[in-house]
Amino acid sequence: MKRIIIVTIVLCLLLSVLAVGCGPRAGSNGVVNVHNWGEFINDDVIKMFERETGIRVNYSTFETNESIYALMRRGGANIDVIIPSDYMIARMIEEDMLEELDFSNIPNFLLIDERYKGLGYDPDNKFSVAYMTGTVGIIYNSSLVTGPVESWSALFNENYRGQILMFDNPRDAFGIALKQLGHSLNTTNEDEIREAFDLLVWQRPILQAYVMDQIFDKLVGGEAWIGPYYAGDFLFMREDNPDLRFARPTEGTNFFVDAMCIPKGAANKANAEAFINFMSRTDIALMNMAEIFYASANSDAAWEFAAELDFEDYAIMFAGPEVLANSEVFYHLPRHILELYDQLWVELKR
Length: 350
What we know:
This protein has 350 residues and is an alpha/beta fold. The chain is 39% helix and 17% strand. The chain has two domains: 3-133 and 256-323, Periplasmic binding protein-like II (D-Maltodextrin-Binding Protein, domain 2, 3-Layer(aba) Sandwich); 134-255 and 330-349, D-Maltodextrin-Binding Protein, domain 2 (3-Layer(aba) Sandwich), CATH 3.40.190.10. The protein is built from 14 helices and eleven strands.
């Protein structure tokens, strides 16, 4: 990726007025507590927000949707903005864990692509504003993995014993096993879920580890050969290890939308809405894309950024129609199925 060219474009855009403002300005004592995925924002964006609004940002990170859900269930730890994925947002809405947004404080919602509005996890656009989108695939070291990587079966190949990484959360791990077996990511058939569990049990002895953010060091440093992860992270990781490659398995994969939400009872709701509005601005979306390599839900920013990519990088970062046709979004599942997942995950990790 020609990162210098991309950053130059971003800097030029910062000199122009592309946004619909910053939203309401808070006093100098304003605070917003933001909880986001690791490696999922440009640090300069936080500094810019603080300078422009006078609101101080307390920033922390999480590794899985399940961990942010567990934190919210324990009371939220004074969080004002969270950025979970689609299926988890639906669960939080169902369990009354999110505040309805005041969109008069978020005028930049107009900049969000219509494709990411009115989706199944928030059909009435009351609780969330889409942030970034992407797909899951397999990242592997081409100097160490010599066979073809076209299928999820590569993660179950005994030839890579001790060199395979696997997602450390149940929906993604079970999702991979389900796709390998030809089932839907969103099946509610308990026999199919138990079949996926049996496959994961078989896989466990040949794994090196269950990981989330640890995949960066392990694959970039050559400590492991192959593992599943997100397309945007691959483009980031490849800068440090050009031997890394990315593959979307032929059986299909997960397409996700991560969106900005406000937890129920947030102490700084207006400041949280100011932060969401700021993050939705075109110039800010471009800065974040240049840093993390995910596709922004801001349509103008996505088009501008995509124009500077070569074909290979574009195909990885922006899921085209053929990829989307072979992808599924995770749905929020019935409670008894979630309980089955929890039970089987504990048994698998025991």
